Each structure stands twice: as structure tokens, then as C-alpha cells.
Prior knowledge:
Blueprint: E1 8-11, H1 15-26, E2 31-34, H2 38-46, E3 54-57, H3 60-65, E4 72-75, H4 81-90, E5 99-102, H5 108-120, E6 124-131, H6 133-139, E7 142-147, H7 152-162, E8 177-178, H8 181-209, H9 215-225, H10 233-243, H11 265-276, H12 281-294, H13 296-305, H14 317-350, H15 356-362, H16 374-383, H17 394-401, H18 404-417, H19 422-434, H20 441-452
Parallel strand pairs: 1-2, 1-4, 2-3, 4-5, 5-6, 7-8
Antiparallel strand pairs: 6-7
Amino acid sequence: MSNAGADIGLIGLAVMGENLALNMESKGFQVALYNRTTTRLDEFLQSRGRNKRFIGARTPQELVAALRPPRKIFMLVKAGTAVDQLVDQLVPLLDPGDILIDGGNSLFTDTVRRVRQLTERGLLFVGCGVSGGEEGALKGPSLMPGGNPQAWSQIRPILQAVCARTAEGEPCCDWMGDSGSGHFVKMVHNGIEYGDMQLICEVYALMKRVLGMSNDQMHQAFATWNQGELNSYLIEITRDILGFRGPGGEPVVDMILDAAGQKGTGKWTVGEALEQGVPLTLIAEAVCARSLSAAKQERVLASQHLLPQVQAFSGDKQQLLDDLRQALYAAKLVSYAQGYQLLRAAAASYHWQLNYGGIAQVWRGGCIIRSAFLGEIKKAFDRDPGLVNLLLDPFFREAVSSRQAAWRRVVVAAVQSGIAVPCLGAALSYFDGYRSEWLPANLLQAQRDYFGTHTYERIDQPRGKFFHTDWTGHGGSTTSQSYSA
Length: 485
């Protein structure tokens, strides 16, 4: 193929990079490829990339020379230092107006820094969240680009050509906003993903341990649920996993050690929520559940010494199965509501103009958390762009409220049976806390004022006016700085 004027360059030929390159080529784009290990590039060009519109580059210089200006380079390398090292290699080779796109799972603050630094050099940097795994990369991922806004008109035709589409044909790719907003949205996506997965696992545990369902029965239940309001990618793959058999006919899921891994994006989400003062309780519990599962040896030892006092479930098993479906749906809505609260807080803190309905649109196809009710989230923000919490939208208010009784029965059954349901329980506690006109924080503020003279507000005085009580009779009138609520 001619080396004059490839549409886009792609660096990093691991599974995601390889599949995204094939996706781009299949949409009519000529793609220049570079991989630090050149043998990997050769293998690809001689196998899956054979006789396609690819240009192989053995050095960054060759890659840059193969691109039509303004050059567009999509980087799919490990987040962190590797991105900075690659950027440092490329910057001296580029001209003003050229575009670097980081498609890895970078921490959004790193993207903020890179956008600023490259803007000073006259280059356009974009942090693009990519979701959908290897299949999504090949067939159409969800893409969440953000960064230097001058880049969008140049990269939009390519990104919207290769991204997933909704059932109505709308692209699951849109501009998220300035600076690190694209990677921030992807981080929140991953946090919601953590919550969704843990909720499903808790339901699975109750099916298995309380209802005594076989894998085939659970497979059928998830297959049925996937036909209704719970229709989603994660329910779909759970159905498939529970029905999968190994070479000897054994259920593969039963052979997998119950110790979960994580790459850190969930922890980033929870850390940012703490910084923003957003109660991201469900996702925090999902992260902690993975950490607890990883302590396998310790749990085995504890199981021999910490014996539960539980009672066997004696109720209507069919009713409990339906309750599980309703509880899963209600808790899932809380997970999204909390995630959107974090997006709102970040938009205010970092001065981003996030399109909340547009984010739901981008998540409707291609990504891991794609599900039927994301369309309802988009409608909610179309109805009220200033919606302060998804749970206050009429659709979601009714959806959660009408499932309260089932949700509570599930949590009670889990507690009585000794089955840990940290996310189902945290979601219900958040719902009960958020809907409460009164919370016991008055006592908490009294405690803080007692031991630390942190002051408090009074219900008979205007907000923002602070008071201190000399609780012991021998304290002074000097107070600590006022608190931020």
C-alpha cells in the first residue's frame, strides 16, 4: 500500500489495539500502525491484517511520516508512565495542530495535565474513554472523548464511524467536554460497572445459597430477566456464564476461585467521590467486596471460627426469586443515581459543561454497562437538564418506590440467612437516607462540638450561622473552624 497519507495512526497492538485497528480499516480508513515490539507488528500484518489497508511503521518517525496532516495518532498503551514516555517521543516529531488521542484507562488528572502541556506546544491532546472490551473494539465500542475542543471536528468522522450504534442508529460517541472530562466519564462508567457486577453477584449468591437453585435454573432465570427491564450486557453474559460447560460437562463458573481482581479504576472513582463529598456508597462497597474476596485464605480461616447464627429460608421461594429481580433493578438505579451525582459535582468543581443525557446516550451501546434503561436516563435529562438526582425524576421515582417492599424482603432474607449483600444493602440505606427529612447528624455535630469545639448550626437560626456550647462547664469560647457540609 502507498505510504502517503494514512488517515490515522494507532500505537499499541495488544488485543484492544489490534481489534480497533481492524475496526477502523473496515470502515474505509487507512491506518498506520506502530508497536514498540516490532515482531508483534509483523505477526499482525501477516495474519489478521494481511491484505488490508495498513501501513506498518517500525519507528515513531516512520509512523508520523505516514500520516496525512493534521496528524491523528490513537495511543492504546498502559496508563501512567508509558503514556508520558510515548508522548515525549512523539511531540518533537509533530507539527502544530496535530492530535494525540490517549485511549487507555488513564487517570483523569493525568489527562488534565497532558492537555495543558500539549496546548502550550501547539498540539491537541484528547483523553478518550473506550469501553466494550475486545469485542467492542472490533465491532463498535462506546467512546468518550474529551480534551482540547479544537480536536473534535478533526477526529469526529473517524470516532463516530467506528463506535457502536443504538438501535435507532445514533452513535455511541460524543464530545464529553474540556480537559480530563472524557477520562472522568470513563472512570465513573467503570465505577458503575463495579457496582452492577457486585449486585449481580449478590443476587447469584442468594439464588445459590438461599433458594438452592442449580446453575441451569439460574441460567434460565437470567435469560428471562434479560428479556425485560433488566436487559443489559452484564445480565446477558451472566446468563451465558451460568450455562457454560467445560470439556467434561462441568460448570466452568464453579471451578473458578472466589477471589476477585481489580485494576484500580473503581478505587479512583471512590477516591474522587470522597474528594467531592459525594456519597458513592454502593460503588465503594463494590470495591471493598473485591478486596474482601481477595483475602481468600483469611476468609477460610475465619469461616472455621466465626460461626453464624442463621435461619433457613422458609418463605415462598418463587416470591423471593421475583423479589430478587425487583431488588436488583432498584439497586441498579441507585448505582446510576450516585454515579450521576459524582458527574454533577465534578462538573461544578472543574468547570466542565457535561451533557448528562448525552453521556447516557454514549453508554447505550458498545460499553460494558449498556442496558435498556439508559434510554430512560437520557429521557430524564431531556425532560429536566438541571435534574439534581435521578431518583427525583418521575420515571425513576416510581420505579424505585414501587419495588421497595421486594427490596426490603431481599435484604431481610439475606441478613437472616447470613449472606453478605453489601451493595444491595448499601443501595437501600442510601435510598432511606436520601429520602429522610431528618437524619441523626444533629447528635453527631453535638459530639464534634463537645470534643473539638467544631460548632454547629441551629434549626431556629439562619443557615451559615454557627454556635458553640460549653458542654462541660470548664471549656472556653474559642472554637475550631466551621465545618463544611
